Amino acid sequence: MKRVNAILQHPLFVSTIAHVNELERDREFCKHGLDHLFDVARISYILHLESEDKSEYPRELFYTAALLHDLGRARQDEDGTPHEQESARIAEKILPECGFDEHESALIIDAILSHRTKNENWKTTFAKYIYCADKFSRRCCECARVAECDWERKNSRIEY
Q1: In the predicted structure, residue 142 carries a pLDDT above the cut 80
Q2: Looking at the domain that runs over 2-148, which CATH code has it been given?
């Protein structure tokens, strides 16, 4: 997990997540800070471990994709740029500086770009794990604002 810790200390990650947190400080619905990012990391890894998938994805890749998948939220809030595109752009800068090779980076960036839309033809099961974990991570059943929320995939019970 050395590379995950390098991401957590990377100046671009630190400044970007701080900006997201600042913009969402008064947000009443789902936030996209470290709590959410780590929930997605843990859930995606659990989904992989519980599956019959024989792909050998290291835990470090799940944590990396999860930590980077929502970094574009600030830009989306500011100018409407889809956050998955901005998150992928940020990831392309951070990944090589933290020791990820081209194959790993491509896998992570594909998952980031795919995390918002259900797709039966995902390039990899890795992208599917990140997508599902992002959705399962929301505890709508505990939210005081659930009745006012317009997210169509509300979670009525805890899965993970």
Answers
A1: no
A2: 1.10.3210.10
